[in-house]
Fold these 2 entries.
Entry 1:
Amino acid sequence: MTGAGAVGNNLLLQYCFSPGRLERKRRINSSISIWRSTFFQPQASSKSHQLPLSTEYYGKRLTVKKHILRMGKQRAVTRSPRAVLATDPASQQLVEKFNLDGNVELQVEVSNPTSGYVAVVNIQVTSSGDNFVLHWGAVKSQNKTWILPQRRPAGTMVYQNQALRSPFVKSGSNAVLKLEIDDPSIQAVEFLIFDESQNKWYKNNGGNIRVKLPARESRTKSVSVPEDLVAIQAYLRWERKGKPAYTPEQEKDEYEAARLELIEEIARGSSTEDLRTKLTSKNDISESEEKIVSGKKSNIPDDLVQIQAYVRWEKAGKPNYSAEQQLREFEEARKELQVELDKGSSPEDIQKKIVKGEIKTQVARQLAKKKFFMVERIQRKKRDVMQLLTKFSSEPEVQKASSEPQILSAVQQFAREKENHIADSVLSKTTYKLADKELLVLVANLSGKTKVYLATDLPESTVLHWALSERPGQWTAPPSSVLPADSVSLSKAAETKFSTNSVDNQPYKVQLLEIAIDDEKFVGMPFVLFSDGKWINNSGSDFYIDFRAESKKVEKDAGDGRGTSKALLGKIAKLESEAQKSFMHRFNIAADLMEEATNAGELGLAAILVWMRFMATRQLVWNKNYNVKPREISKAQDRLTDLLQKVYRIHPQYREISRMIMSTVGRGGEGDVGQRIRDEILVLQRNNECKGGMMEEWHQKLHNNTSPDDVVICQALIDYIKSDFDISIYWKTLNDNGITKERLLGYDRGIHSEPNFRRDQKDGLLRDLQNYLRTLKAVHSGADLEAAIANCMGYRAEGEGFMVGVKINPVPGLPSGFQELLQFILVNIEEKNVEALLEGLLEAREELRPMLSQSNERLRDLIFLDIALDSAVRTAVERGYEELSNASPEKIMYFISLVVENLALSVDNNEDLIYCLKGWNLALSMLKSSDDHWALFAKSVLDRTRLALAGKAESFHQLLQPSAEYLGALLGVDQGAVDIFTEEIIRGGSAASLSSLLNRLDPILRQTAHLGSWQVISPIEAIGYVVVVDELLSVQNKSFSKPTILVAKSVRGEEEIPDGAVAVLTPDMPDVLSHVSVRARNSKVCFATCFDPNILADIQAKEGKLLLLKPSSADVVYSEMQEDDLESPADTKIVSSAPLVALVRKQFAGRYAIRSEEFTSDMVGAKSRNIAHLKVKVPSWINVPTSVALPFGVFETVLSDHLNEVVATKLQVLKTRLGGGDFSALGEIRNTVLELSAPPQLVKELKDVMQLSDMPWPGDEGSQRWEQAWLAIKKVWASKWNERAYFSTRKVKLDHDYLCMAVLVQEIINADYAFVIHTTNPSSGDSSEIYAEVVKGLGETLVGAYPGRALSFICKKNDLNSPQVLGYPSKPVGLFIKRSMIFRSDSNGEDLEGYAGAGLYDSVPMDEEEEVTLDYSSDPLIVDKNFRHTILSSIAQAGSTVEGIYGSAQDVEGVVKDGKIYIVQTRPQM
């Protein structure tokens, strides 16, 4: 697509040119304006980017400017603002003074011209302000509409084609400005004054300030000036003003202003010859211009010269001529016509020859991309970026599609948890509906056994009546070896009772049963259920589970459809054979399915998107032995896209996915455009005498079944002709767009031949193919920019057999100036320097955005335009990489801000992206103001933006990839295409461009902020073999036999360090004080983040090799080693050791609850004791929340209570299974603990203790609140069986049964900020330095698995008032909570010397935290230096105080609320 291509030029010419002024019949007809003045062609005057003024006020007396296009491309112009100082001539007369607003005075003086016609208006504002702008226009006679004089102060800008804005110049305490009005017909000037610094308008009693001008005599009637001199003077004025773009009205005004200036010169005594000598001797008037002046004396009418010049311009390829070159072109055109005149032709004869193309021209075709002017800029409006916010909560429809309600049932929750444990072993999963209840059957292959898991939520006790089958359907009594406990064996069956279990967060219970079959001779399992005195079967038949590999393989290949709209995808697969007939069939089938897809929610629409994208990427058959008319395809497209626009309008939460579907489907044509594909290929062949060979084969293909391939074929032909018939270019265009020779041959009407044209066909073919390309794009290319603009702006074609009679009306209600903005985009679409283009594209999308959320009969066209603009941003950014090669950080950051803005305009739920955009804007502001922290802050915004991109990619993957895999398997789509389905969608959007820009900026910021390539979290020297893994989580329970350096792409923050790992290196960014970081330091494991992808890639490339790591506090030096270099073989082996630590079983002391004064080592853990100790030791400015506790032994006592006999029995069975190595029992144990009932004595004692400690008792707010508190207590106890905690104790051979859990109860402080302090810097080991991290909201985002980094700082203990920020926060979310209670784990397994037990167990708030997306650009901790200094200093002082109390390095957790410091726990730093 080219800016000067046929579609773009036809559109612009027909939209911008004055019609009916030329006679030529070919394509000139309405495409040329009369070039009465050849001077006014657009040139840039400045590259400066001027932000717009406030748009709060719009003048009422404004006119709309219309642009005109001549040779070359037109652009809007921005000038660097400056103003001239007002003079004080003696002729001035005081007109009036105004008191505008208290301290602001306005004085206006108007000269009474003693000679000539120029009136001078001097305006002076007296105020302390220094940034005033005059918003003004002029008035003629009784017309109240503002006109825009052409004589303007320097720096004046046109505001929305309706007013002028001229900047004042500061002069002492005054701001001054001079206006010169040279048009005698102007009777008054009207204006307002705008103070940019205060965003304030100054008016005259609420209205415009009007200044009448003295009457001036018009001298145009008495003095005559030769027209050629007027033309030269007009050119000189235009050149002085920076060669702006003029409307026809402005041209006329400018021409008359030039005439008046010359009349003024004559009035002062100059002769005509004096003027001619003066004008023609100027250096910037070329010799060619003088020839034009003399040439105008010929007898050739100007309109014929203009037409001939247009013919030359068109034959030259419509290049962008400078003004001087245009003058030369006119002279050459005049010479060519003069030759005909000298031969005896009359002007009428010449006109006929021009129309027939018989005038001989000598013109070389210009390079299409050649530019003769500088890139100009549009003015972007100032907007509140929060207006871009789109935020939708998840709706039930999304879950409907996956056959799961929004809230998972107990059965579904059990299924999800079980599948998470045995995901790779699952063979099949079936859910049966039992009226309003469910039966789940899950089959897995574990350790060579077939395991069947059954679960139901039937309320009554249920028995399984079952058998095994050696042949399908056969009932054979199961052997005793496979019977679960308490089963009853019958003659041909067995009966087994389900057991009852609770599931997390479910008020009701689920019945479970597990059966293991180790004999491969059995191929299936028939069964029925007996419950509540009734037999339950499968709709009159037995239930049957098939174990056979054959049946499993088919199901496994397609998957089970989890996370998809499975029913809809199955229906699509069944209809694919019909859809393959033609695009008409496919689009009509998709339209028929739209209602079902919409009702299924986001997953239903995802099914349609996956199907349409498989089609668009040619993974599915486009046409199969079916002849369909193009207009029928167009009609089907029209129907489908109409339904999609309705979804877009009615369901705003599905706008993003609706756009994605529309981008894969063509627009469809209006005005019977589809049929014209058939008709116009005949016109093209007839016009150019190319009815055989490749063109005839293509013609037959088009008649049989047109497709998007035809757009590519047409473009390939155009490129082939433009390259002077280089056939390799033809094939390159085809191959670059996925069309091979085999594909051409594979059409129902195959294309076997290569194009072969005569040279004399070149011009006609180019003309007609470019027109035909427009027709093809109108049907197939909804996201094509030129076609999308044409559909919105409107067009009407009447020429030479292409689109004849097609009339598209403009979309009503487009924003003012929008047409000019789109024209600017088309003109600049191939500019190498893309910054101005990106601004234009973004401005167009911003202007368009309000219309996309409103009802509009042409909404579809607006959506396609927005899609096309979005796509153009990506293309422009990729083309602009070269521009950024040696660019400043400011320029790269500005580019990034534009692309982030574009992404925010394209996606739903864009809150995080908007805060990233605000962060980039703040970083740019900090850079411009020379803030020392700009690079450090920009790095945090960069990290957050990367997280946002990763989150978006993950959401796409979760939404689309399961559907792609399931439908791909059903349809036999190439597995490679399925595997990269989501990845290719992401790559095709601006997110991929943004990622590349971030990669370019990252090393610059790290260098500027002196961050280096590493952040060392645990500086331990290590030797080991390199092993590369995707996630640390995936190997946390593994034991490595050799010392291992793990390179993990993902580290969340709460994983375990596996046995045998001596180092963990990652590009991820866990907090230095996260659980995994603390455990790495405690375990003496090297742990570091590598920011440089090249370094990381080099280490990954050494997988399997032995490396030596030597970390310092800020760097890691690594080198390859040979095993021979080691001191002894023992260095490469992991040696088992005896337990380093031991647990002492704690006994119940007879108390269910105790006050903090009673905390002892026999009753509670170190966490509780430390907080009680601090409570009485810290100074008054440090606050410690009141605490009580449920001491050691309470859990065991509650479990042994008669209320919980059944629970105790179940728990003992599960613990036996766990001891036997069945780790899936861990989750069941946790669920069983949640079934515990609270003894009345526990409730009473806890209530009494809390009330004595002045803590609120949850039960006072109702029984439900106590149940919430009791559930939280049980979850703390249950966390003893967390996977990471259990495996951690096994690793160091701790007796897990000896682990006792007290529960520390505290009132939650609804924190503004949370912090963790290590009073010895953990990265360097420097005991003179405090290290701390701070997050917004609660501390769980700091110590838990929440992505992003906290604000980090260090502070010397001998200067606690001078904190030094090391990094700004990048965490996208914060946690906040209302007044509530928190129940903290406090086990005897934490804080043991030599064992990193801290953080393994859960602390559970009684109420759920609210997750809030954070805006750091308005956070005082970021933007207020004094506030930041105060808070960080207070945190450092608190850490130093706590360390002083204990006399050793401490790990301190706390919060900040309303500027006050609270310490919530402390422990020895390990």
Entry 2:
Amino acid sequence: MGTGPAQTPRSTRAGPEPSCPPPVPGDTGDSDVTQEGSGPAGIRGGEKVIRAGMGDSPGRGAPQRRHKAQPGRAGKYEWRPESPTSMGSLGQTEDLQDEDRNSAFTWEVQANNCAYNAQFKEKVFLCWQRKKYKTNVIRTAKYNFFSFLPLNLYEQFHRVSNLFFLLVIILQSIPNISTLPWFSLGTPMVCLLFIRATRDLVDDIGRHKSDRAINNRPCQILMGKSFKQKKWQDLCVGDVVCLHKDNIVPADMLLLASTEPSSLCYVETVNIDGETNLKFRQALMATHKELTTIKKMASFQGTVTCEAPNSRMHHFVGCLKWNDKKYSLDIGNLLLRGCRIRNTDTCYGLVIYAGFDTKIMKNCGKIHLKRTKLDLLMNKLVVVIFISVVLVCLVLAFSFGFSVKEFKDYHYYVSGVHGSSVAAESFFIFWGFLILLSVTIPMSMFILSEFIYLGNSIFIDWDVQMYYQPQDVPAKARSTSLSDHLGQVEYIFSDKTGTLTQNILTFNKCCINGRVYGPDLEATTRPKENPYLWNKFADGKLLFHNAALLHLVQSNRDEAVREFWRLLAICHTVMVRDSHRECPDQLLYQAASPDEGALVTAARNFGYVFLSRTQDTITIVELGEERVYQVLAIMDFNSTRKRMSVLVRKPEGTICLYTKGADTVIFERLHKRGATEFATEEALAAFAQETLRTLCLAYREVAEDIYEDWQQRHQEASLLLQNRAQALQQVYNEMEQNLKLLGATAIEDRLQDGVPETIKCLKKSNIKIWVLTGDKQETAVNVGFACELLSENTLILEEKEISRILETYWGNSNNLLTKKSLSQVKLALVINGDFLDKLLVSLRKEPRALVQNVNMDEAWQEPSQSRRDFLYASRLSLLCRRFGLPLAAPPAQDSRAHRSSEMLQERAFVDLASKCQAVICCRVTPKQKALIVALVKKYHQVVTLAIGDGANDINMIKTADVGVGLAGRKGMQAVQNSDFVLGQFCFLQRLLLVHGRWSYVRICKFLRYFFYKTMASMMVQVWFACYNGFTGQPLYEGWFLALFNLLYSTLPVLYIGLFEQDVSAEQSLEKPELYVAGQKDELFNYWVFVQAIAHGVTTSLVNFFMTLWISRDTAGPASFSDHQSFAVVVALSCLLSITMEVILIIKYWTALCVATILLSLGFYAIMTTATQSFWLFRVSPKTFPFLYADLNVVSSPSILLVVLLSVSINTFPVLALRVIFPALKELRAKEEKVEEGPSEDIFTVEPLPHVHRESRARRSSYAFSHHEGYADLITQGTILRRGPGVSSDIASESLNPSDEEASSSPKESHWHLRKMSFLGKKKRQSQGQVSSQEVQLPPTPSSLFSMDRQSALHSENQPALPKYVLTSSNRLSGSFQEQLPRAQERSLSPKQRPPSPEKLLLTKERSHSLQEKPPLHRESQPSSSESQP
């Protein structure tokens, strides 16, 4: 084939091929050949690349298509990756240079040759090299045996407080300047480092256990001539691995072969992108045909040349060189690490990337050292305090210098006391004061904070209200240092699948012929008897019960009801697996999406049972009667069409089109709009209010002549070399007109319990919730409405509107997003990963395209696109007028200004998103999730929380300030990398609003009080220095200093940090507005710190000078003017003052609280009596010098009055301020509210017409998680026909390893023998070359409807064309017939045996019609030998 006059012959396919079939729908026609100048590096000009039978199925992930080269390179074709999130699909204009492109393909792997792969080295540093290909060992832990101590100490000394304490300890070890022994601070320092190191060690041991469990998972590796049981960590690049059903893929592998037809392999990628629908991968036809035994696999020496490891999950480009031929590779040939094998008995793969080179590990990110805002603030405050202490010490040192000079002048006779110079003595005094005042940064505060963090974490573990009993999952704080961060969260980034939803889709309601059928009231709970017992095929799992509908179905009188369920049984891509051996009637469905599985299962329980399918037929049982329908065409679903259709010929001979899809596309294709249609619209609106996922069902009967004419155009479109997909879409659209509405289905995507209530409460707490998912946009938006993240009055901005706002943001003096009009509208953003690729420049740091940029085919537009464009223009115009946006796009910029504007747009996007009530990001990769979190942290400096349950959420969880893992069905990967573990999303409400807020309140009160009491007690040393010649003499007794923070004031402050509650848990949940205080840092900030310092300094001034002034000029027994009595009075006044302060600030009074206060005072009385006793004084007078000092003071009533006076002066003014100031503040707020009065100019936004909605009053609740491409597999027979692939002996020789997470169900047989018995291998005949000029041009959108009506009327006057009969051989192809076990064929029951050829006759005219007209282009005329039974 070729694209011009010069025809290029097709290359020979690998392996024997009887004939070369024509291109199938969706194929480019010549994708098997890549000519000169194309392909990846290493494919030189003139070489041909064989694309062995892969085709270009749209659902293949990222197939490689051929496109016309740019001008100047005629005759050459280039590669173009077409992945949904591929970096190469951004449409950028710059071209990569050839050398850049060649350097990208530097990864070369040879199968079964470890020595060859081990020779590749990469440079690390200077002459140091290491192996280029990593092993499959995963190490996510931070430390090992040798690095723990140095690395942990390095991390701990990042705290400024630890550096300060280390400096003080060094100074204390110098005898000349030491005022306190070094161990007085060294011992607490070692304890603090030990506590934190132990905490980090425990966390890291958990990571080591997780790594060990993953690395020791079993797998089968080809070693020599057989597969041997090994571990994941033993895998190397180039190994051939055998996988079985439900196994997890251990590395990124090239699929070589499988036991499925055409070496298909079904995978579940829920851990990668969150999608629950199955995806398929396919091996090259060359490896599928050749690698059929273990011996052949052992001798396989193919070499794969591909791109270097990268994080692009949906993109892969490479080629396989084998037997002097080259075969192109794409993402459709690759099994990614973390995927789970589904519905595939056995498959074999070649390891391409291992370990940290795999795509999922490239997306996992690194472990970040998470620090709370209070911790970072404390670092800054320590610096401030240290600088202040240094300044105070300098002042005191200079004052000492002046006082010493004056002392020497007046007292020259004691000059021997000051033998050194004044400067030297001042220098030593400076360091002495620095040591003495170092207690202003108390070591005990940091030690107690560790116990407080630990205690608050334990309280989370003990909370029984966050225990999820169904899965036995309690809440767990895996990180003990982030509990206060839970009280300051402003952004929550949530996964969707498994986090907000349960991954369970159920058939909930339906509307047939305008009548809604919901579950019976008595059937809300499971009935005692199953109402579907009359149906032997019913699975008994359908929870939907409606007696009226069931009666209509069983009576079989209503045509609409009959066609409704018949459509659900026919219009799908579900496959039937083998039945249960014990219960042959219990069919096992293999659905590409849970939506289709739910719909087909519902039809099955209502008596319309999908039994089997072949390439050209589908067999269903309708109320006990088996009927075979000939499939004439399957018009597959995609995100543009939003519908799927099946054209079938009924057994009676009539042709019927069955269509299901979104209401917006079905209603505009209806033949008429009547009462039934309006009633269905009302039902859809009700379903949307209930946030159910809906599909509309419609059908039409097609006349024979219309079908013949359409079939010819369909065949011509399928043979096009260019724009084939667009032509096929146009042909499909021509048939999908004049439909008759049957009704609608409503499926419930079950949310987790309490999700809407949780989100509503969190939004009241001023927390913004973003949903980051790899799923489709329609599904994510529908879930957004279901969980009340979006509402009907929410203005959803789409990508074009977002782009316009961002383009004009910086042109309007950056004030657009602060306008009153924008701030008062409920906005929401819905974007996808491709849009983020174009917008966020941070994504472009990675190589974007490994191929040249070429022009792509024109995108297909629906016929109603012109009307939608008009609606969009109207909507955009109204949006621009409302928000003050210019209607004209900004002028073009040069490249430098363009790059600068891109950086500004990145900031503008974050600003715009922060103004929105909700943001939903669809089709995003794990790395994009983490990037979004990082951008919000970068530009807004807020506390972020990420919550997810799968491996695709790990990077997001690591990047966020707080990571929450849900123990769900996706495994424990997210849990093992999280900071907190929950069983359900609804527990997040209690975790944040109760435990998080309490922790924040407790820590803030703890810090404020500790700074206060430290200043109140220690600033006295500064005032005392002014009266002792600035000599650095301590005022207090040494034991008072040692025990003050240990016994005398520790218990009350520890109670505050562990048990303080300003409101109860119930009130915290009822008043979520209280949570805002933590977001605004109201309880502890620089101002609160200054207040605490000022309060403490004031208390110290009152205690010292009040005692000094009263004791001056006193004498006699009641005098306390001596040093010891004075020190005791000041110490007692200080202790009672801070005790009164703690009594005032505690709001949660319990018996334990009273006990802590009494114990603190009791400890002071006991320890003071002991340290000032005569017995200890006699033992060591220097150690215990204060003999009975405290007893003398307490025994004097006048001295006690002095203490009482000091405490009263410290307490009553503070109490008055705390009572009066809030009252005045509240009164002022009321007065301002009365003066303003009710606001009358409330800004309202009139509803904007949605681009994709037919009606403004009704929201489309369409959502369908179907994956494109399965229809092509069915029509091509790829999914049905088993060629000379992996033989049954190789599968039986391989042991079935059991993963830790894999199910241990018995191994099922391959495919239902009903389909295989009469499945023949059809030969296709090409009916000539058809150029693009020969294809009939599609009608305009405005005339399409009328043309179809005219063609239908015209067909009535034409003679009826002969009808077709389906003939099929019941003889298997030779290669597969040899593999089919005879025993299974003989064991079939009569109901399981294949139908006779007579049952396949679909019209009354049988053999005569075969001679009148050739059959459809989809199958060739069978030979005489094949047509014989």
